[in-house]
Amino acid sequence: MLTKAIKGVKDILPQDVARWQAVERAARELFKVYGFSEVRVPIIEHTVLFTRSIGTTSDIVEKEMYAFTDRGGDEITLRPEGTAGVVRAFVEHKMYATNPITKIFYMGPMFRRERPQAGRLRQFHQIGAEVLGGAEPSVDVDVLALLYDFFQRLGVQGVALQINSLGCKDCRPRYREALKSFLDARRDMLCEDCQRRIETNPLRALDCKAAGCKVATADAPDMSEYLDDGCRDHFAAVRQGLDDLGIVYSINKRMVRGLDYYSRTTFEMVATDKAGAQNAVAAGGRYDGLVEELGGPSTPGIGFAMGVERLILMLPEDGTPAPGPALFVAALGDEAQRLGRRVAHGLRKSGVWAEYDYAGASLKSQMKKADRSGASRVLIIGEDELAKGVGILRDMKTKEQAELPLEGITGELVKRLS
Ligand code: HAM
User: Fold this and answer.
1) Cα(365) to centroid of ligand 1, in Å?
2) Tell me: the pLDDT tens digits for 90-140?
3) pTM of the predicted model, to two decimals?
4) pLDDT of 357-376, one tens digit each?
5) How far apart are the CA of 308 and the centre of ligand 1, in A?
6) Domains of the chain by range and CATH?
7) Residue 232 in contact with residue 223, Cβ under 8 Å?
8) Is 80 in the pocket of ligand 1 (CB under 6 A)?
9) Which helix (H) or strand (E) holds 178?
10) Following DSSP, what letter does each residue of 276-343 receive, concatenated?
């Protein structure tokens, strides 16, 4: 218990952090050129924020939230996703008052009590982006272009962009009714969950993985035929915009998404070699009613979130070994060691990564440590060297060695190593 992390929760170890930082850096760079600013919202929020936005019939709210009553009696939940908190902050801080369009991004841990398996964790990380204030199809195109560019920039292979339109609050009820009657007539073929969903959330039956549900819904009514003129035109303009920018996508008419706040455009970046529920590496869509639902002025919104763990699994191997220090100082004897520590300290102050041996054991063991640390060079100061007033600089790759006078050695090393 004491030496084992909670199920579905993972440490990100030092050897893996370089990849995380590379992903985060690439995201920050790209978000900047698309005009997005970072926002950092809390990990805990009032439970009602999530029930109201994600929806009481969603899997997340029904069975996956880490919700608790705190010591003061408040109902609190560890955020299962980022959009609700961002919208709450948008309304609370009246961000709409300063700019007609707000483009924000966030990174951080999310929590869902799902059944853990490869690519599905209970604490996972999202990098997400939200645009609040723009209803035009161009905004959808911009958000999709950003997502698409990001995957290209990272060189991720084997992913495909799928899009759909879920209609709006005016036309979706008609589709819901049609689907309800369709499902009702096939009730016996559906799994228990979907039988229940006929009343509460019939669209979810379309992406249920149960074999019977797949057969039963094979010729279900087509959502696209129920879109009203506004939603149809919007979707056509989004597709046109994507085509104009050379963004490759397909339409997945059965993509319904697991959160209730969506309207019109929805999309997923899916791993093409994986079937099933864990294949979405990123997902998002429009949520034109959410800001109002959460007490703000009527404001359209659209965004996405990428699952960082899933993304990292798909990154190409970069082949570059984890970098080690530029210099390791191996010094023998008290005086040489103190000198070595001063040299390493001087290098660090000049921005050069330097290490020195803390224990000051034999030179042989210090050289071994230097090797293991991945240092590119070692400065050796043995007793003989100290007496001669020199240090030996050894290149760990070429094994070449050069003598450097100890007088002014820090400056010389900074020059050579930075
Ligand atoms: P979501 O589809 O629930 O959407 O999650 C987005 C992404 O988070 C998924 O595609 C997946 O990569 C990752 N993810 C979700 N659950 C897990 C898990 N248990 N373990 C590992 N990764 C996971 C949202 O969260 C929306 N807030 C996206 C959005 C933003 N829509 C509009 N704006």
Assistant:
1) 49
2) 999 999 999 899 999 999 999 999 999 988 999 999 999 999 999 999 999
3) 0.91
4) 998 889 999 999 999 999 99
5) 10
6) 14-171+227-314 (3.30.930.10), 327-412 (3.40.50.800)
7) no
8) no
9) helix 172-184
10) SGGGEEEEEEE-TTHHHHTTS-S--EEEEEEEHHHHHHTSPP--PPPP--SEEEEE-SHHHHHHHHHH
